[in-house]
Amino acid sequence: MAFRAHLTSALFASLISLATAALAQDGGGDAVNRPLEDDATILDRTGRPGTGQPEEGAAGAEIQGLSLYERMGAPLPEPPPEKPYDGPLDEAYGAFQRGLYLTALDKALPRAQLGDPTAQTLIAEMTTRGLGVKRDPKAAAFWYGQAAAGGDPNAMFQYALLLMEGRHVERDKAKADDFMRKAADAGNASAQFNWAQTLVSDNPGRKGLQLALPYYEKSADQGVADAQYAVAQLYNTLPGVSDDKRVKARDYMLRAAKAGFDTAELDIGIWYVNGIAGERDYDQGFQWLSRAARRGNVVAQNRLSHLYINALGTRPDPVEAAKWYVLSRRAGLTDAGLEDFYLGLTEEQQKKAIDAANRFRVK
User: Which of 25, 55, 86, 98 is the most exposed place for a label (fewest CB within 10 A)?
Assistant: First the structure.
């Protein structure tokens, strides 16, 4: 049976950011960005093409959009579907998968009461969702706890989340960490990602990232897009990463983008435009930034405006550039350079841009 594992977005939104300052103090540089060549064409934080050289008094030139740490609050994509079950035939799970919930309950409950962790996990899932039985979160927490103690990886992951958040059980970080680690080591992809996040939180700086990377890798290779995104960033910038891994950074970022993670869509677009972790490809950069912008990513909308102005991967189009600027400005992203560009348009061009922005709907 395929459980839908829920990644903890609040955890994803806050943990890795703790490592940034400490990593820089370690002398390892920015954990996400790297300096560009002197003659590189880049999109900086405002989206303006530059030379890769810092302005006087600027913090530095390694600016390729918002970093991993700054956008950890981005909505996460759905976890990948679990692999088809190829183990021994389980009548309870078979009935569940066919939607025969009462039959599944009748077959699973006696086994669960006798201590079968697989059946206990099924009962917990059904009780959580109210399938074949009245929805009862407290009872579900009990069954998850029983199954976790029995060693079921899915139950260990779910019970760790309950312990971490104090939902229907007493909050217990140490116990949550223990179950999360065990679930990760047992191969649960979502647990691997969350355990990596915990390692980063508990070990600020480069050390935490290095400890977490193997778990990010395992989760990424099972198809978890936000883990693929983390692996891409760390392969590209973390000191000590082997060359054979570093060359795979763009591949992991592309996999995360193809999974529908709009943050990865933004970054792969910027990577193509700036030539990060591979050759420049303005056409691909334009396509990915367009995709992220159409899905409502405000930073991508800003960057796309600059591509239209500078004819990078597309023909110049002042009205289209102004449309994307208007949309990003409405969302609160200011850009003095784009404002100057917009004010330099004719009234007719401004009107067309506003009309186009008003018609825009997130896809």
Answer: 86
